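Review form for a predicted model. The reviewer records the input and the model, then writes brief findings.
Reviewer: anonymous (R2)
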Amino acid sequence: MDFHNAMSMVMNDGHRIPVVGFGTYAPDTKYGHSLLNFIEFFIRRGCRHIDGAYFYENEEELGRAIREKIADGTVKREDIFYTGKLWSTFNAPEMVQSALEKSLKTLQFDYIDLYIIHTPLSLKPGDDLLPVDGNGKLIFDNVDLCATWEAMEACKDAGLVKSIGVSNFNRRQLEMILNKPGLKYKPVCNQVECHPYLNQGKLLEFCKSKNIVLVAFSALGSHREEKWVVQSTPVLLEDPVLNKLAKKYNQSPVLVALRYQLQRGVVVLAKSFTRKHIEDNIKVFDFHLTEEDMKAIDSLNQNLRYDLCAHFLDHPEYPFNDDY
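Model under review:
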């Protein structure tokens, strides 16, 4: 099956985004050397959407894996949908294009399909991904995100990127961009943590009303990396409701959680570091949840955010104190 055409949705700029993507954040370095193989396998199975970021420090490997599949004739560059992200140390408008060009050079691409502001939480510019002071506290920067957005628009006009969007923005921050005087391009998407325990119902409704695609990361709960995630939080995939539905449909709880998002009109990123999981994830198109079962999953919502970005709590643009 060619998922690029059959399983994609049109964004507000006319470009299509495949509804299932491969998330490439690998907190545990043991995946680093084999990421190449997973990407190649993912592409060979007919999948086309790869979600990367400067912050993940693996753009070189991703670019190489994709270029190898182009070189051997498996795909053309235009078949691949690659998402890159502007890291928070580059949010200052004068740094946006050079940050994008740096990623393009590392990936060895002429353009990126979708480039998004990784977070509204600007950090001190420089070589450190997470710049800290003498007390180990993050050093924030105060950046006008509307000016950042104008620099993103300029990158689109320059042909460096086809579509532009945001990530980890709340409603207020999205409205700030949407209501900006002289807005040239609306964000095509908002990529946020989203799963049955944090179903983002209000934000999803708002995004749909503005023709902005909601893209779900941590759709299966979380990577549970200690640096970011409180370890006492419940494990989503052990939830009895998801497991009961998995039995009913003869599928895994993973597939039930992913299918739930697709039926809500959410683009979902599935991170898979075994070939079996990649194979399994493709089966998400093989079944359909009833309206009753969708409501049962809706009822699991408890606004549980696994990744609170706790190091950023004092940041003036911290997005998660708002209702949504």
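Findings: The first strand starts at residue 8 and ends at 10.
Further findings: Residues 3-310 form a domain with the TIM Barrel fold (CATH 3.20.20.100).
Recommendation: see findings above.
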